[in-house]
Amino acid sequence: MRDDFVSSADRGSKTEGVDVRFINTDGMAFIGPGSEWFWTMLQFAALAITFYAIYRQLRGQQEQMRENTKLLRTQAHYNALMLHQRPEEMVIGIDGLARIVLDGLATPDALSDVAWARFSSHMFLGFNAWEYSYYQHLDNSIPKELWVGTDVFYRDLVQTKPGCARFWSEFQTSFDEPFRSYVAAEFANKPAAAEG
C-alpha cells in the first residue's frame, strides 16, 4: 500500500484532536492592551441599541399624538355643537323666550328693559358660540363644514336682524381681538336696506 494514500476510515483518525475554530481567539484580549477593538465594538452595539430604542419611542409618541389629536378634535366638535344648541334649547324650553327672541331680532327698541336683558343674554350665548367656533376654526380644531355652517348662520343674523346691531353696539367690548374685528367687518358689510 502506498504511504500517501489514506482510506476514508483512517481520515477521522488523522484529524482527530485538531481543534477547528469559527473565530480565532488566539491572542484575544478583553481587558488591557489589545482590547480596544472589543470595547469599540461594544460601544457600537450599545449605540445601535440606543438609536433603535429612541426610534421606537418616537414612533410610539407619534402614534399617541395622532390619537390625542383625534380625541381633541372630537371634543372640540362636540363643544361647538353644544354651545350652538344651548340657546336654541332655551328657546324651546323656556316659556315666552321664543317671543322675546323673535321680537328682539326684528324690533329691539320695542322690548321692555327686562325683555331686552333676556334677549341680550340669549344673544350673548349665541355670539360666544360663534366666537368659540371662530377660534377653533383658526386652530383647525373643528371640521371646516361646522365652521362654514356656523359662520353663515351668524353672518346672516348680522346682515338681516336689527337686534344684532343693537346687541353688538352694547356688548362688543365683551369680545376680544381678532374676533371683535371679524364681527365688526361683518357689520360694516351690512347692506344699507338691512340697516334701516
Number of helices: 8
Query: How many β-strand runs?
Result: 0
Proportion in β-strands = under 5%
Radius of gyration, taken over Cα atoms and rounded to an integer in Å: 40 Å
The quaternary organization reads as single chain
Mean pLDDT, rounded to whole units? Answer: 84
Sequence stretches where pLDDT stays below 50 over 5 or more residues:
none
Please give the share of residues in helix.
over 70%
Class per helix and strand makeup: mainly alpha
Mass-distribution shape: rod-shaped
Order of helices and strands: HHHHHHHH
Described by strand count, sense and barrel closure, the largest sheet is:
none
Distance between the termini: 131 Å
Describe the secondary structure blueprint for this structure:
Layout: H1 8-15, H2 36-93, H3 97-106, H4 113-138, H5 144-160, H6 162-171, H7 179-188, H8 192-195
What features would you describe in this structure?
This protein is an all-alpha fold and 196 residues long. It has a domain at 79-195. It is 73% helix and 0% strand. The chain contains 8 helices and no strands. It has helices at residues 8-15, 36-93, 97-106, 113-138, 144-160, 162-171, 179-188, 192-195. Helix 3 (97-106) packs across helix 4 (113-138). The protein is rod-shaped, with a radius of gyration of 40 Å.
Gist of the model:
This protein is mainly α and 196 residues long.
Q: Which features does this protein show?
A:
196 residues; single chain; mainly alpha
